[in-house]
Amino acid sequence: MALWDGRFSGGPAEEMLRFGESLGTDLQMWREDIAGSKAHSAMLGAVGILGEAEVAEIHRGLDAVGDELAAAEEAGWPKAGPGWTPGIELEDVHMAVETRLHHHVGDVAGKLHTARSRNDQVATDVRLWLRGRIDLLDAELAYLIGILLDRVEQDGRVLVPGCTHLQRGQPVWLGHQILAHAWALSRDRERLADCRKRLNRSPLGAAAMAGTPHPIDRLHSAGLLGFSGVVENAMDAVSARDHVIEAVSACAIAMSHLSRMAEELVIWSTPEFRRVRLSDAWSTGSSIMPQKRNPDAPEIVRGKAGRVFGALQALLTLMKALPLAYNRDMQEDRPPLFDAVGTTRACVRVMAGCWAELTVLPGPDLTGDFLLTTELADHLAANGVPFRQAHHVAGSLVKACEERGQDLSSLTLDELRAAHPAFGDDALAWLEPTAAAERRTSRGGTAWTEVTRQVALLRATL
Ligand code: ARG
User: Fold this and answer.
1) Which of 233, 235, 232, 231 is nearest to 208 (CA)?
2) Which residues, in sequence order, are bridge partners of residue 164?
3) How many CA atoms lie within 13 A of 104 on its CB side?
4) Which of 55, 204, 233, 273 is the most buried (most CB within 10 A)?
5) Cβ(126)–Cβ(29) under 8 Å?
6) Cis check: omega of the bond before 421, within 30 degrees of 0
7) What is the pairing mode between strands 359-360 and 276-277?
8) Which residue owns the Cα nearest ligand 1 atom 10?
9) pLDDT in tens, 280-305
10) pLDDT band at residue 274 using 50, 70 and 90 as cut-offs
11) 116 lines ligand 1 (CB under 6 A)
């Protein structure tokens, strides 16, 4: 028996049931659905629409339904658990819970739906679900950032070539580069916090879209659910999904960060780069080439970024040009939402695992490396030569070295002075790689004091 029986003489086609059900996805939100129903009924009680005993009865029934759903979940959806498992004829989690509530408490269950609609329910459930998942994802990101900071402190004092265009640029502490990733992730946390703030408003009591003649108190149910307020407009309350798009957008941006970090681990674990060795736990072997150690974990993270970007695209397209208010199209928001959030969370955890267990290898010998060329230019500039001119002089020295097949360590002070008289007595000392990194004490530079300052700043956010 459908909830709209009064109007209909026939039931839905079997195929319509299978086509239209969202239960397979939204059953994941059963806790939120029950919490929403409890808050709504408590509010109906508080304003006198329901009697105290009726509210108590409804709550008892909702708890019973919750126990059954917890058992069914434990047993593994969608196979029947020890007790009752909802079937697709119930269409969605809202109908499933209400129908089962009727089984437990009888006709008083029908009073629960006063002054609300499933449109309110789905909007409420998604916000509650998302709020909870954002909190989990935020904690996981904070954990990953903490692991990165540990790495910076333990292994960050390894001098590596900092690259632009993937070409050797200047020597930096590995910790400096790891921190760059950590800062990006800290902005992901800020984005999620912003999104959480905006979505944390209750749509409950919109009553489908127009409000209700019943004397409800939307702020009351909002407060019970931990919302900071209500969505002011009833039509907006049931038809807005920008928080879903925003959350998935934050996930997509986070995935772009994780994919960059993953890509670096892939590159860094090659014999060509030799910066890290991934642990056995986060690598795989080859079925034919016995020597292989493949960086599958970061590769999969890199790949999954595409999946989350796809979810964002799906959601934007889903919502584009939909007329107000609720449209059934909108139930298609949950598969990409759930998948994007679940995927992002999994990737954050996997990256934390990779970083916690990898080995940082000794840095390459950078003595005489052309990536110290900027030092020559900076040395001249410090002695008053215009940087553009200093750059030209340093470039010509590289050219000279290259022509005779040698590196910067082959240069003598006389040769430097022949190229430009402003080279001082200490010029060759500028070509020492560690000193080059340590000279960069400007705010945000690679000097170790700056690295540790940033570690402290980031730690304070965890
Ligand atoms: N199953 C629907 C969804 O997931 C719930 C709301 C249905 N509302 C409606 N008016 N048909 O979006």
Assistant:
1) 235
2) 167
3) 22
4) 204
5) yes
6) no
7) antiparallel
8) 119
9) 999 988 888 888 889 999 999 999 99
10) very high
11) no
User: How far apart are alpha carbons 325 and 319 in whole angstroms?
Assistant: 11
Give the per-residue pLDDT at 166.
95
φ/ψ (deg, to 5) at 218: -65, -35
Given a contact cutoff of 8 angstroms between Cβ atoms, the answer to whether 369 and 408 are in contact is yes
The whole-angstrom separation of Cα 63 and Cα 244 is: 28
Both tokens of residue 336?
């990409």
By the 10 Å C-beta count (0-12 exposed, 13-18 middle, 19+ buried), 56 is classed as middle
Three-class secondary structure of residue 413 per DSSP: helix
Q: Structural domains in the chain?
A: 5-114 (1.10.275.10), 119-205+231-360 (1.20.200.10), 370-461 (1.10.40.30)
Query: CA–CA separation, 4 vs 1, rounded Å?
Result: 8
Q: pLDDT at residue 163 above 60? A: yes
| H or E element, residue 146 | helix 118-155
Q: Tokens 């265009």 belong to which residue?
A: 165
pTM reported for the whole predicted model: 0.95
| DSSP class of 172 | E
Is any ligand 1 atom within 6 A of the Cβ of residue 119?
yes
Query: With a 6 A CB cut-off, is 118 part of the ligand 1 pocket?
Result: yes
Is pLDDT above 80 for 82?
Answer: no
Q: Residues 6 or more apart from 34 whose CB is under 8 A from it?
A: 62, 65, 66, 69, 97
Helix (H, G, I), strand (E, B) or coil at 171: strand
Distance of CA 133 to the CA centre of its chain: 10
* Number of the ligand 1 atom closest to the C-alpha atom of 21: 1
The yes-or-no answer on residue 286 being catalytic is yes
Computed on alpha carbons and rounded to an integer, the radius of gyration of the chain in Å comes to 30
Check if 4 has its Cβ closer than 6 Å to any atom of ligand 1.
no
- For the record, the structure tokens of 34 come out as 């029950």
pLDDT digits (tens, 9 = 90+) for 324-351: 999 999 999 999 999 999 999 999 999 9
Smallest Cα–Cα separation from 202: which of 187, 223, 184?
A: 223
Give the helix/strand (H/E) hosting 162: strand 159-164
Q: Which has the closest alpha carbon to 254: 386, 161, 165, 343?
A: 343
Buried b or exposed e, range 427-446, using 16+ CB within 10 angstroms: bbebbbbeebbbbbeeeebb
Helix (H) or strand (E) holding 277: strand 276-277
Give me the catalytic one of 103, 214, 286, 410: 286
Peptide bond into 250 cis (omega under 30): no
Query: In the 3-class helix/strand/coil scheme, how is 201-230 assigned residue by residue?
Result: EECCCCHHHCCCCCCCCHHHHHHHCCCCEE
